[in-house]
Write a structure and sequence with these properties.
The protein has about 130 residues and is α/β, with parallel strands linked by helices. It has a single domain, classed as Hypothetical Protein Ychn, Chain: A. The protein has helices spanning about 15-30, 50-60, 65-80, 85-90, 100, 105-110, 115-125; strands spanning about 5-10, 35-40, 80-85, 110-115, 130. Helix 1 (about 15-30) packs across helix 3. The chain is globular, with a radius of gyration of 14 Å. About 35% of the residues are buried.
């Protein structure tokens, strides 16, 4: 039976990158398994949407080459909704004005800038909540 998942990525990947990658992997797996998935990136978890950061995860070699790109592509192309905290991005140096040079390619096609109202909206509409 298909479920509606709300997955929130909030952990600072500089502190616990593995937890962030596991959250990304779970979101991608839920999508592949046919579930409806909404993902919200907040706090320092927003770094996982930064193009340079994802490149550094790939180059670090702690997971197979290209795997992080594949999982992020599954999310950005297959999630029902991908939200990102506007305030958290600003705290990490990203604004709507400089996002084109900072975030993953095509972000404006799949990402919604939001804040607490988006967290409440997505979590209230879900059957399952996972927080990483």
């Amino acid at each position: 039976m298909s479920k509606k998942f709300f997955i929130k990525i909030v952990t600072n990947p500089d502190v616990d990158q593995r937890k962030c990658v596991v959250g990304i992997a779970c979101a991608a797996q839920a999508i592949k398994d046919g579930h409806e998935v909404d993902v919200f990136f907040a706090a320092d978890g927003v770094k996982m949407l930064h193009a340079a950061y994802i490149e550094s995860v790939n180059e670090k070699g702690s997971i197979p080459d290209g795997m992080i790109y594949g999982m992020m592509n599954t999310i950005t192309s297959g999630a029902s909704k991908v939200y990102c905290s506007t305030g958290s991005q600003a705290a990490n140096g990203v604004t709507k004005e400089n996002a084109d040079e900072m975030l993953l390619e095509g972000y404006s096609d799949w990402m919604t800038w939001s804040g607490p109202p988006g967290v409440i909206e997505l979590s209230a509409a879900s059957d399952v909540q996972l927080v990483y």
